[in-house]
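Incident review: delayed structure delivery

Summary: a single-chain prediction request sat in the queue longer than the usual turnaround. Root cause was a stuck worker, restarted by the on-call engineer. No data loss occurred. The affected request and its eventual output are reproduced below so the record is complete for anyone auditing the incident later.

Affected input:
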Amino acid sequence: MKYAVKTTLAVVISSMLAACGGTKGSFGVDDVEVEKPGVTKGSSKDISTTPRVKAEEAEGIMRPALGYEVKIPVRNRHPKNKDVHVSLNTESIVALNQNNNDVPHLDEVKKSSDNAVVIYTHTNTGKASAERNTEYVKSGYVANIGWTDRRFREGIFKVGPYGYVYYHGTNPSTAVPATLKATYQGTWDFVTDAKDGRNFDGSGFNPGIYRPGDFAGASSFDDRVHNQKDGNKIGHTSEFDVDFGTKKLSGKLYKHTEVNNNNPEQAHLLRYTISADIVGNRFKGKAIANDKNNEAFKQDSNYLEGGFYGPNSEELAGKFLANDYSLFAVFAGKRAKTEGEKVEKQYDAVYIPLDNFKANDLNTFGNIDKLIIDGKEYDIATNKDTFVSYKTDKKDGTKIVICCSNLDYVKFGNIGVNNQANYFLQGERTATKEMPTSGEVNYKGTWEGYISDSAVWSTSAGNQNGGSRAEFEVDFGSKKIAGKLTAEERINPTFIIHGSLDGNGFNGKASTGKDGFNLDPAATNSSRIVHIQNVDVKGGFFGKDASELGGSFHSEASKVGVVFGAKRQANE
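Output delivered after worker restart:
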């Protein structure tokens, strides 16, 4: 049987609110250390840093998401309820945030009619232009091209494909190639609006039974492109040059015409030129139409947005909407990887459930003020007037504790999901080129910890006297880090950490002292003493000039979870 020696996180997260310190302040020694009688120490204070420039909140279709989709527009041509125009407005474009990488709506499309004729990308059973080789991204279309809705007595007469054009990615990137430059190659797809009497004859579409662009929107699968694997270019291709250093992206979208006896020479038609700025692991910009005389592809777009996917930015994907809402396009690309390539970590997003201590990497769109769990976004911006911030989500009542007001580039704390407490840590890493290369530096901060052994024990983040303290010494010359985490109302460290620096991060081991850690110092026997040894620690440096550090460790075997953060100190 386990005994709670302190009100635990697992019961209700609100119990931690009373335990956490609520005063504003820094990690100065005078605020957080418990001194032994007769011992005099020098004092220090947090270094002065420039506040982080917070990401601008995007709205509508420019808001980051795992993906976006639009349903292929089909006009109702019933004489009593005739649709003259079905546009692609911003309300028709829907964000996708599911955590799987399945083709969206595939089952729905298959069931949309009896004897459905279903085509979709990311399959090797259709045209060559439908094949894709991406791992983290799916981009293209899924449609029943044999669909009709002929409920004439009900005022409905529709002929056209039932389906969607979309992109969707998993595992938003947290690192980039250390070279900071990469070329991506891939595909793109599109759908237009549907307008009565429209003539796309000069745009290169197969006429079809539903007159693409008229009865229904014209899609990339209606376009007359090359579909044979004979050495010629296939379908619609994309290519992108990315400079993560200057945070610029440029790209081009092409159509490759069909090659046959009547057209022996293939044409490579540039449809759009793309330029974008990289913000975090996302990008936003514009697409400029190359042929202003092509009825289907003549409109520019100022509504282009996308992101990088895969742990090391292996792939990218995005979308844009023409300024006049006449065309919606999606694109994707993949870069070549070299064996043993080095990468630079940009973001940390860690989640530790305290019921099983199995850490997960969270999705992040590069805005550390937004915590994303199971597709839900939570605001974790800290209140500068309170050292530890307490929030309740307005939508689902989720309670969140966020530390700390003096940390700009790393945030950690706990969040209650489905009545289960979980730790999180999220931060924006220091660029490797800005990391100090020499000198010994002290960092001071706080931590949260949870142990479930013979008893259940926890400690909360705070900066009050006698609160949980995190202290680190970093030698940037020898690339070594040593730290100690001391629990509330304790003098001896709970955990001792030793590790090595690696780029803008560090790895190490955490252990209790040689005598272990007593979960309940008031107990008269040794049954409450735990010995935890050599648990892997992972962390990083955050902000300008490595002004902050943070990290975490967890162990299923030792039943422990910890998150911590600290600020660089200046001697007074």
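Verification: Residues 65-335 form a domain with the Porin fold (CATH 2.40.160.90).
Action items: add queue-age alerting; document worker restart procedure.
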